[in-house]
Design goal:
The protein is an alpha/beta fold. It has 14 helices and 15 strands. It has two domains: about 190 residues, Rossmann fold (3-Layer(aba) Sandwich); about 150 residues, Rossmann fold.
Length: about 375
Amino acid sequence: MSQRKLLFVHHISAKAKFVTNDIEILRKRFNVEILESKLSNNLSFIFSFVSLFFRLLFSIKNYDAVYIWFADYHSFLPVFFSKLFGKKSFIAVGGYDATYIPEINMGLFTKSGIKKRFRCFCAVYSLKNCSVIIPVDKSLIENENRYIYSDLPGKPVLKDGIKNFIKDIKTPFKTIPLGYDEEIFKSGNDVKERAVVSAGMIENENEYRRKGFDMLTEAAMKMPDVKFILIGLNEYYLRHLKSLNLKNTELYGKVSYDELIKLYSRAKVYSQLSMFEGMPSAVCEAMLCGCIPVGSEVNGIPDIIGDCGIIVKERNACKAAEAIRAALKYDEQASLKSRRRIIEMFPLKKREEELLKITEKIP
């Protein structure tokens, strides 16, 4: 009997470790073919959309199932043809496909403008018509974010999660957290520096604020005796932060995984003061490298940190600095405990077992 075939769809820009991990996991059961969609919000969209339409029209019958990372433009046609030809389709939801935050222009569930409306339509159709939705954290199903507007008195709590945007959705959900390889992420340093590290893909002002780098910059100004290592800055923010002449900051653009692990390994504390997240991998990776976590009370962050670090409940630089100072006082046993929590709660093997279990009944 020949091995079953699975079409793995992701946008060409989505090449994070958690995406490639899922490819390797699913290859243990399926002959996996990868489709890197180039659909995007620009003038080439129509050509790419038509090309993908005909490709799937003639090829979808060759696959037993379709697995898609993120609901967006690129998920619409794979789900449409999967349903048309009676194939199972799975959508892994990571975060931006479960929210809309106008202040930082994040998320799919917006109706402003024709292009954004169409993008929202594609996401909603995909989520309502796929076989199973696989969020990385339960907060992406339904959630109240009390941190994001905590610095704006009188502003109501932000309600997000797929069920808050698609009231009549009947698609089943199966929450499967991301998993991490403890042999890849481990500290190479015996002694930690008195430093706090944070990493993100900071490509614009909205991401700078969403990832909490504005809070970290203010905290750095208040803590000249502590080194701040900020990773993933674009050219604008590299120049901007250098112009502030903060002697206690180390600034990096995109770095390799090897370099990222070295930077995690140096710092005593990892801080993630995001306004919104799904399940941020950087927190888990840093904890595996022995960092004490300091994170905002947002989505999956508190569940990741548990009793191994400090949760910041207000979007306030003074509160952030206070939490970081407290975390810097933790001892070596706390670093070991931080690593142990991720090994026990989020091993890659556990995600593998859950993904293979949910796909084992595919006809």
